[in-house]
Design a protein that fits this description.
Elements: E1 54-58, H1 74-79, H2 81-87, E2 91-94, H3 122-134, E3 138-144, H4 153-158, E4 172-173, E5 176-177, E6 183-184, E7 198-201, E8 206-209, H5 224-240, E9 244-248, E10 264-268, E11 274-276, H6 287-299, E12 306-309, H7 316-323, E13 333-336, H8 337-341, H9 347-359, E14 367-369, H10 378-382, H11 388-401, E15 405-409, H12 430-435, H13 479-483, H14 489-502, H15 504-508, E16 510-514, E17 521-527, E18 533-539, E19 561-567, E20 575-576, E21 587-592
Parallel strand pairs: 1-2, 1-15, 2-3, 3-9, 9-12, 12-13, 13-14, 14-15
Antiparallel strand pairs: 4-8, 5-6, 7-8, 10-11, 16-17, 17-18, 18-21, 19-20, 19-21
Helix pairs in contact: 5-6, 11-14
The structure holds alpha-D-glucopyranose.
């Protein structure tokens, strides 16, 4: 699930070229209704808001520190809402803010219906909701259904006695005795975060199962009480007005009831454990009953609440079941992690994966993602060390011009780099402490947001001791300086998002692949129901390329291509029938008339 691929970062970002030939104006903001739980959809878009949304992930520890303790907080997020409004995102997903033992930085929850004091208070959360609503920004919370913290009162009680009313909230096994009479775990399952997935508790004489850290015991979803408790927690937040949830590790809710040994696949992983098949620990069919009931519960709320899934799956077609197939009655947006995390920059692979997401999901809406708090940043994964700044613009164009809901991650829009620790003593993520040096953990993609160069903390904090160090390139790579530079990556993102909001074909049109045998350039059209057509060509090679679009053969009408956006800019002045020539890693977006 966590891509451990790490490559070296490159030099300073390429400086901008020139102003756009054609300036595309942002869709006018539509005032939200203060009375409704969630704001009115942006622009005059058809269908539910999440179908054409841009969702922005906030890792709250690293977004904005308002009280100088070196860690981000809710007031900090509220202070930065104007920035998000200007970027024109529709929603923010905030990684867990609940009280937590903070072993996994919030993903080990001790209370599902409160705010961790390090992030603020419930009143501050409500204020954030209200301020976001005023700006037509929805708030999506992270919901960790698979496990709690071992410090959650349920687990503390469950581990005290087998008679505890919470004992059966967790997955227990007596294990088995080896030849020497020693008690051993019931099977060979390993934790995704290293070592056996079973931990013995002498007080009850049993092992409990943990898919992640041993401080994150798995909940037992075969117990209906667990479902009741977790649905109640979600209602608590839905009642307050959140727009939905991103469901953490939702593919892992069920395990094989017989606890059978996992087949070995050969070799070892970055944590030094044997590679095992996950047929008994992931994506079990039982989970879909829960998803259908969850969808039905969420659908009782007004305002198009949304369920997003953290769904790392082996192939695109596997995602279909998570939407509920042709019935569309499970998650609205299970993440397609294959496009954004499973590829090198290769036109053929992207074409195949994108085509699958358009044809194998019963017309459900794909959700694309290239960056998050668990993976090496796209800048470093796709960059070649020479054309990184151009390549980052291609990634942005892929995310924002294909037929998909777009999920982005703080810092992606300014080209923040992955800052992997160089000494094990600096590592904060336990995954990196345990896995060092094979797996250096996820600190690199979690460094503080780079706002400006007003102080050595990049405007993130006034405290010189931020919880993770600020990356040294903040003097050039920051929101303030990029906002002032028309050719910056930030302004490329802003223009793409504005175009996507204002252009019907890009917002909701179908997608037609073009020039499908071209190994270097990915080209496609977006076509609205009224035949408004936008053509996109992305040169994924280090050589100039001239695609051959053959629009007539693709059934597209029009004889004149007018550039809407291009990188580098300008690519071609005035109109053309074909993109003349695309420089290395060029991105070209044009309207067909
Ligand atoms: C998800 C989260 C990750 C966390 C894990 C366990 O993968 O994104 O950060 O460590 O679940 O909750």
């Amino acid at each position: 699930m966590h891509t451990s691929l790490r490559r070296s970062t490159s030099g300073p970002p390429a400086l901008a070229a020139v102003l756009l030939v054609l300036v595309v104006l942002a869709g006018a903001a539509v005032p939200g209704s203060a009375a409704s739980a969630v704001p009115a959809p942006a622009a005059q878009a058809a269908g539910p808001w999440w179908r054409h949304a841009v969702i922005y992930e906030i890792y709250p520890r690293s977004f904005q520190d308002s009280n100088g303790d070196g860690t981000g907080d809710l007031i900090g997020i509220t202070q930065r809402l104007d920035y998000l409004e200007r970027l024109a995102v529709d929603a923010i997903w905030i990684a867990p803010i609940y009280p937590s033992a903070q072993v996994d930085f919030g993903y080990d929850i001790t209370d599902y219906q409160a705010v961790d004091p390090m992030f603020g208070t419930l009143a501050e959360f409500d204020r954030l909701l209200g301020e976001a609503r005023r700006r037509n920004i929805r708030i999506i919370l992270d919901m960790v259904l698979n496990h709690t913290s071992d410090q959650h009162p349920w687990f503390i009680d469950a581990a005290r006695s087998r008679d505890s009313r919470y004992h059966d909230f967790y997955v227990w096994s007596a294990g088995k005795l080896d030849a020497a009479g020693h008690r051993q775990p019931p099977n060979n399952w390993v934790s995704l975060f290293g070592g056996s997935a079973w931990e013995f508790v002498p007080a009850v004489g049993q092992f409990y199962y943990h898919r992640f850290y041993r401080q994150q015991p798995d909940l037992n979803w075969r117990n209906p009480e667990v479902e009741r408790a977790m649905f109640a927690a979600m209602r608590f937040w839905l009642d307050r007005g959140v727009a939905g949830f991103r469901l953490d590790a939702v593919t892992e809710l069920f395990e094989d009831a017989k606890l059978r040994d996992a087949p070995a696949l050969g070799g070892t992983n970055a944590q030094g454990d044997p590679n095992l098949s996950d047929i008994y620990t992931k994506n079990l069919p039982e989970v879909h009953d829960v998803m259908r009931r969850l969808r039905a519960m969420v659908d009782t709320y007004p305002g198009e609440r949304v369920l997003i899934g953290e769904t790392y799956l082996a192939k695109t077609a596997d995602l279909d079941a998570w939407y509920g197939g042709p019935k569309h009655n499970e998650l609205h947006l299970p993440m397609d992690t294959l496009v954004g995390f499973g590829n090198r920059l290769d036109a053929n692979t992207f074409r195949r994966r994108l085509l699958e997401s358009q044809t194998e999901l019963h017309d459900s809406q794909p959700l694309l993602v290239f960056d998050n708090h668990d993976n090496v940043r796209s800048w470093d994964r796709f960059g070649d060390g020479v054309h990184d700044a151009q390549i980052a613009r291609i990634v942005a164009a892929l995310l924002l011009t294909t037929r998909a809901t777009a999920l982005m991650y703080q810092g992606q829009e300014i080209g923040q780099r992955t800052q992997t620790p160089t000494r094990v003593e600096d590592v904060r993520d336990p995954l990196g402490v345990r896995g060092w040096p094979r797996d250096k953990g996820r600190d690199g993609e979690r460094t503080p947001m780079q706002w400006d160069s007003s102080n050595a903390q990049a405007g993130f904090s006034t405290n010189p001791h931020t919880w993770l160090p600020v990356t040294a390139n903040y003097r050039n790579v920051n929101v303030h300086s990029e906002a002032a530079d028309p050719g910056s990556l930030l302004n490329w993102y802003r223009r793409l998002i504005a175009l996507r909001r204002s252009n019907r074909a890009l917002r909701e049109g179908r997608m037609v692949m073009l020039d499908t045998a071209n190994p270097s350039v990915l080209s496609y059209a977006r076509v609205s129901v009224d035949d408004e057509t936008v053509i996109v060509s992305l040169n994924m090679s280090a050589q100039p390329q001239t695609p051959s679009l053959d629009l007539v053969q693709a059934g597209l009408h029009g004889s004149h291509l007018q550039t809407l956006l291009s990188s580098p800019d300008p690519l071609s002045r005035g109109g053309a029938k074909e993109p003349v020539s695309l420089p290395p890693y060029a991105a070209w977006v044009a309207e067909l008339r």
